[in-house]
Amino acid sequence: MESRRQRRAERSARMSTLTSPPAGQQEAPPVGTVAGRTVALIRRLWELSDPRLRRQQLWGIVARMAAAVCIAVPIWLLVVVLQRLREANLGGPPISQREVLWWSAIVVAATVGQFGFDLLAQRQSWVASFELLGELRLRALEHLRRLPLGYHTKRQTGDLTALVTHHLSELEPVVFGAVPTIIGAALLPLVIAVGLLFEDWRMGLAALATIPLAMLVYAWSQRTFARLAAERAQASGQAAARFQEYVSGIAVARAHGATGERAGRLAQALVRHREASIGLVNKLVVPLVLFLTVIELGLPVVLLAGAFLLIGGDLAPATFLVFAVLSLRIYGPLRAMGEQTESLRVGEAAVDRLGALLAEPVPAEVRAGPAPQGHDVEFDRVSYTYPGASRPALRSVSFGATAGTVTALVGSSGAGKTTCLHLLAQFFAPDSGTIRIGGVDIRELDSRTLFDAVTVVFQDSYLFSESVRDNIRFGRPEADDDEVDRAAAQARVDEIVARLPQGADTLVGEGGATLSGGERQRLSLARAILKDAPIVLLDEPTAAMDATNERHVQQALSGLIRDRTVLVVAHRLGTVRHADRIVVLDAGEVVEVGGHDELLARDGRYARMWAEQEATRSWRL
Ligand SMILES: Nc1ncnc2c1ncn2[C@@H]1O[C@H](COP(=O)(O)OP(=O)(O)OP(=O)(O)O)[C@@H](O)[C@H]1O
């Protein structure tokens, strides 16, 4: 038992080292040009949106641009008014009341327009950002559902939860604020710059003089920031994973007096996250402030150049004023772009992580496969090696299990028994060889047929934090209360229900925390009985159970396995001596097949295991 536990611990340690590279060795994300990365992010968000969302985002951007035009109208009017004043002063026609009324009407219309377009822009952008996030979360969950279960053994659940809940939320300000701001920052200054150059190329150049330098500083800050944001996202995923691990394993840790050590690992992850966040801010502050300062330098340059030209009589005072006001409209959006930097790069890290999840290949879904002829199960030279493992878990395993019979898989720890069940339930696909149900390769069966045909009862089936009845109904959601209660009675769950405060409506707590191990097992058997599948896979159903519970579970089992194709994994040979067929596995290979008596008579591996177990039965503490 101890060595088994050790092996499991080693296995999970191996898995976690596969998934979490040591600190400091994370791969930095590829850092392209700033513009390239930003365009790539916008393109990816665009690709991830459906046509309706795209329309919404476009409307949001168009409304923002329209609001910007409305803001520009009073500035343009200022130019017109100044010119008119100059004309009037130089002896032109005096300014009429009608003109003043027109100007006022234009300002009012522009203000109302700005209000309306801003309202529309805000609404569209917020709605688009929430809808996109909802859509991305659903897409991530749908992808997770379709991934082979092997993926979930190598990925920490806390990390996945952090991605779907926390990291994707970091995209909200990107879709709502950063993307429209950046598009605005690219378009508005461009339009104004062209206008200024056209009006007076010398002043135009002065207004644009500081922008190349500001862009260089911006590019520099983004390179560092992209790497740090990815590191921070990874640190936050790790912290979430450690937290989940800590909470789930607190009972085991306490039993082994290792709560301090576990808390230490969690604390380390939290410290790493904190340091990554502080490091991000520290590294960002200088370039960001520098960028904003260089941008701010634009106005003094314009004023200086304007003053020189004014003194030399080369520039009209009205044009000078226009440049002073309009150059501010160039720097404003650029400054806003700088301020959006953080959300942009953090969002980019979130999109990278989502992209990595969505890039995990999912097996093609078979739509309408052939129907199996009966429910015989056949393993035909099946081999499988776990990703990252140094040796195969199964090597050319062949055996058959006839419908209506019980086939037991026995062998020492690590022999490959559970792997056989997992491959049959298509949690993973074999590397080579074929598994057939009713003569059909399970890869050709559509997932619904396979799901309906096979029930798996694990050693420790997961119970949801729902009522006892709903947990049983999980086996067949359309079952009515009577059917659920019958299944419960057959699995002796009625006895448990009688003791619970609200009977079958009592909530069982996350993972079934409020029930004993044997009770949880009986509940999962009730679930399997309700499902009523023709092929039943049992993974050590009575392991580590007391005599009373074992008797109850055995009774429940006899109801479940009648007239089915049953494959049962067992360590205690006593529980499977009456099996129709016993398949003995050793280091991933089938070494013997036969009935109990036949195998004993053969005096091989099984007979030795049996003798060893008989000997240990006489042990007394
Ligand atoms: N997720 C995994 N990743 C890597 N190796 C694994 C994984 N699961 C199992 N293995 C390895 O595959 C081999 C077969 O494991 P399996 O769980 O099928 O054995 P078993 O006979 O059911 O053992 P036990 O009775 O101890 O549960 C073992 O060497 C095991 O360490």
From TrEMBL:
One cellular component term from this protein's GO annotations in UniProt: plasma membrane
Endpoints of the signal sequence: none
GO MF annotations, alphabetized: ABC-type transporter activity; ATP binding; ATP hydrolysis activity
InterPro entries attached to this UniProt entry: AAA+_ATPase, ABC1_TM_dom, ABC1_TM_sf, ABC_transporter-like_ATP-bd, ABC_transporter-like_CS, P-loop_NTPase, Type_1_exporter
Keyword Transport among UniProt keywords: yes
Annotated Basic and acidic residues bias: 1-13
Record keywords, A-Z: ATP-binding, Cell inner membrane, Cell membrane, Membrane, Nucleotide-binding, Transmembrane, Transmembrane helix, Transport
Main subcellular location: membrane
CDD domains: ABC_6TM_exporters (cd07346)
Residue stretches spanning the membrane: 61-81, 101-121, 174-197, 203-220, 284-309, 315-332
Cellular localization per UniProt: Cell inner membrane
Membrane topology category: Multi-pass membrane protein
Ranges for domain ABC transporter: 377-612
Region (Disordered): 1-31
Origin superkingdom: Bacteria
Residues covered by the ABC transmembrane type-1 domain: 58-344
Family to which this protein belongs: Belongs to the ABC transporter superfamily. Siderophore-Fe(3+) uptake transporter (SIUT) (TC 3.A.1.21) family.
Protein name according to UniProt: ABC transporter ATP-binding protein
